[in-house]
Amino acid sequence: MTADRLTQANDLLPFLTAVDGWTPFVESSGAWCWSHPGEPLAVYATPFWDNLGGIVVELATDGEAYARFLVPFQATGDPQADATDYLAAVRPLFTFRPFPPELL
To answer: Could you tell me the pTM of the whole model?
Structure first.
């Protein structure tokens, strides 16, 4: 992530709050992760990761990633408005679950 993109992303952090029990935290790598007590799902949703123009999402259970995709997101420069847009983009991800392997 370039310094400008990192600054844009980090400017949103003070405006992020828990959503339906999901709490955000930043890992030492800089990745943003959302977790929920009692849920095996971890939602990594980091804006501008790898300098991509959007939110890079990785869904993982028990430490194993099962999906990775890009959600469109454009920062406007207003951190509060951008945080609102970011939350609107990631909130639906908290309902995703992996397809049970026995049904494949």
So the answer is: 0.81
Closest Cα to residue 82, out of 24, 26, 15, 6?
A: 15
CB 46 within 8 A of CB 32: yes
3-state secondary structure of 13: helix
Q: Return averaged pLDDT per consecutive 10 residues of the chain, 104 residues in all.
A: 61 86 88 88 87 87 86 88 92 76 50
Residues 95 and 49: their CA atoms lie apart, in Å, by 22
- Structural contact between residues 87 and 19, judged by C-beta atoms closer than 8 angstroms: yes
Residues 78 and 18: their CA atoms lie apart, in Å, by: 20
> Which residues is 61 bridged to in the sheet?
41, 64
**How far is 32 from 6, CA to CA, in rounded Å?**
12
